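@channel sequence for tomorrow's demo:
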Amino acid sequence: AGVRVYLPPDANTLLSVADHCLRSRNYVNVIVAGKQPALNYLTIDEAIVHCTRGIGIWDWASNDDGRQPDVVLGCAGDTPTLEVVAAAAVLRERLPELKVRVINVVDLMRLESESEHPHGLSDRDFDALFTPDKPIVFAFHGYPSVIHRLTYRRANHRNLHVRGYKEEGTTTTPFDMVVLNDLDR
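structure tokens (generated this afternoon):
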């Protein structure tokens, strides 16, 4: 049995992921989803396409127009996605000349190399998303070391800066948790 880890960012992606997981056999499926009301970023049809890919550039939240960005904002998880989308909006407003690319990850195993996991991306596909040399700020709904372990062989790993859970705070509000763990916009 293989392990799959899914972090749907909204209700529509959660529906798509749950449908996929309930139909799968001989896998351990882990779905990380919050219990707080959240925005819907994608329609159900867009969510199905995004979840099928497992990872993708959110053009509507980016301003790089498909060209080389100055910075990549990556995210996995509902609250980290909210913060990244908000951070991208702040950057567009305050630094409109800065080209920002927003990448959302639903299937965590897409970050792994294709040689290490069946869902993994080739180096070429990974670099096409995250670039081979631009700064990457990645917001994650878990320990930052997980993202580093999945990406440590990637060409641009040295420019990857992950923000996530660092044992700060207890059961509190999502806002307090993001501030206490340096995950806020």
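heads up for whoever presents: Residues 12 and 45 are 9 Å apart (CA to CA).
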